[in-house]
Specification:
The structure is a homodimer. Chain A is α/β, with parallel strands linked by helices. In chain A, 46% of the residues lie in helices and 16% in strands. Chain A has helices at residues 25-32, 53-61, 81-93, 108-120, 134-140, 178-195, 197-210, 217-240, 256-266, 273-291, 296-308, 323-338, 369-377, and strands at residues 4-9, 12-19, 44-49, 68-72, 101-106, 126-131, 148-150, 153-157, 165-169, 348-352, 357-361.
Chain lengths: 379, 379
């Protein structure tokens, strides 16, 4: 079982460690500043949110060197410039220079914010992430996407800035709230769908083992293997196509075109990212079925795993007022993400095929709006 | 005389064109979207400031395709996140997608803001700069540094994001206010000092010709050659050391350690960047003299050019209340830029030597504060 990975994303080296336990602060300090003395004031700012504050204090607390900890409000609503500016100002106060270190301790939002701040602080400082959620471990902490929401659009502003060092301590997962757990499981299922039947079988096994609870060592070993496979797959894709200019990285958006629209139509933060992605994957299966790309038994298998994991896959989604609002969100999202595009509708969907998934652009399905309306409404 | 340059800064190609006249909007559109039809709505946002609005309208106005123009307040005070957010929101309204284009028309501040916005919009969009000031042409528009001021610190946040295409239209210079002119001349002199005696002689010739006004064709040819040499030098340095991690790019900070301190002690925006850099170069010469690095005749030559170009080189600087405030700004700046640095003072000065300049770190001059106080106060 592989638990240590050395990736290079574009020019950025990124070392990923899967662990049972949390890293110690001394271990982190030593990794970044091998020559640092014990009593020195260190140019380090740790960032967490209200959910991970006690975890962060546990990691930082046993060190007698002062490391400043900034605690942000938890939740998608914190993914704003205000939070980034708070981090930057705290870094100034903590005396960080160009070689200063930002440590993000938390889930996807904390990682995105800390990463964005680190990437622009003096045009780029050092970055370590301690990922404490399943979503972070299987997706958000890897591959360098940072960002904030703006104008009601998810990740409208951000950078590509992989962390030099990423810890994935499994101990963090066993105290995770159910909603957080579900948010991550969707990305795990997504990765398995993209990777291989073998990985998807492993996820099925995980779901099966979960019925007995998450405490058994069999379950935990299976989870560890899922995370390891997930890291390996995502790392491979991002190494091949770091800035999503090629054909590989777009596949990671399986479920996201529909999912983003759902998140935005419901109001950012109302539906968790993972739940939205899960619902979006079910829509992608339906679209694939209609287009003859997703084999029926494959679509059933994916939707069954989603349902067994407790996801809402029905249409129309109960938390969205009207299918029109969803269509509008998707079209607005399309317009914003792909631009006017010289008359060609550039909206892209990732659709499962027999082996993995493939990209379908809206121009390929220009029975168009009517078809999408059906997929979204279930009519 | 070389007027066209193809640089590669880190991974980013950057094409630089020195011109007598302004580019037409059709030329820009064609460079970025060769397939665009004439009547199409284009995913382009142009940004200028109140100083360059009429120029920008002149460039954009003759096109019947709608290109949205955003006008920012001119001046260093606009170098804030608020401006960047205004640009990002305007880009959303203008329908820019990932392949959308930002055109910055103006000087250093406009370029820094437009570049920063373009670099983070959807994690990186397209960027064209039309530089309209001498400072922009010889320095700011080249080499990819973008940024905003925060917490009273210049460029505290920013990115490395070279423009794909940079126009340097000399026509813009002949309507430049005197203050703007002086701001750019300082960077031109700086580059000549770093580059060669030949280039410095050319700058002396330019200063000499300027006494007859800036309208003669001899003067304008000389200026063009100065800009061409400046672009060639800076491009060479940034290609060798794009992210200032090596030994080359730090040289471009000649005059800046003292200059930034002066800007911050006087209050951001009170003294122009170039005037501060000129004053800082005079200080660097004094420091170099004291340390025996700058030959006396070299120091005299540089200071004479600065004085002849109308710069304040005296100590203490008349716009700074006390030398202490300057020392404090420099030390704060030092702390912020280089961090705690494990006990070693990492403040660096660039000091002219016989041929070019070299880096002197504060630890090399740790008679230290007393010496710096003398350099700043002139006592």
């Amino acid at each position: 079982l592989k638990t240590e990975f050395d990736f290079t994303f574009a020019d950025y080296p990124s070392h990923v460690l899967i662990r049972d336990e949390f890293p110690s602060v001394n271990e982190i300090i030593h990794a970044f500043y091998p020559a640092a003395g014990l009593a020195e004031e260190l140019p380090i700012l740790a960032v967490c949110d209200t959910n991970t504050e006690s975890l962060a204090r546990k990691i930082l607390g046993d060190d007698n060197r002062k490391i400043r900890l900034l605690v942000l409000e938890s939740g998608e609503k914190s993914k704003s410039w205000e939070s980034v500016e708070t981090i930057l100002r705290a870094a100034v106060e903590a005396g960080l220079g160009r070689d200063g270190l930002f440590i993000g301790i938390g889930g996807g939002v904390t990682g995105d914010l800390t990463g964005f701040a680190a990437s622009i602080y003096m045009r780029g400082s050092r970055l370590c992430l301690v990922s404490t959620t399943l979503l972070g471990m299987v997706d958000a902490s890897l591959g360098g996407k940072t960002g904030i929401d703006l104008s009601g659009l998810k990740n409208l502003a951000g950078t590509f800035y992989p962390a030099e060092l990423v810890y994935l301590p499994l101990a963090a997962l066993y105290t995770l709230p159910e909603r957080e757990w579900k948010s991550g499981m969707a990305e795990l299922i997504k990765t398995a769908v993209l990777d291989s039947g073998e990985f998807l079988d492993l996820v099925k096994k995980l779901t099966f083992l979960e019925e007995e609870g998450r405490n058994s060592s069999v379950y935990r070993e299976c989870l560890k293997e899922c995370i390891s496979r997930s890291v390996a797959y995502k790392g491979r894709v991002v190494e091949a196509d770091p800035k999503e200019t090629g054909t590989m990285r777009p596949l990671l958006n399986l479920g996201h075109t529909f999912g983003h629209a759902l998140e935005e139509a419901a109001g950012l933060g109302v539906i968790s990212h993972g739940e939205a992605v899960a619902w979006g994957m079910a829509r992608a299966c339906k679209l694939g079925l209609t287009l003859g790309i997703t084999p029926p038994e494959r679509a059933s298998e994916i939707i069954e795993i989603l349902v067994n994991s407790g996801y809402e896959t029905r249409t129309p989604h109960p938390l969205v007022k009207s299918v029109d609002s969803l269509m509008n969100a998707m079209m607005a999202d399309k317009k914003q993400r792909s631009g006017h595009g010289f008359g060609v509708a550039k909206l892209r969907f990732i659709v499962p095929d027999a082996e993995s998934a493939r990209v379908v652009s809206a121009s390929d399905i220009l029975s168009g709006d009517t078809l999408l309306y059906k997929i979204l409404s279930g009519e």
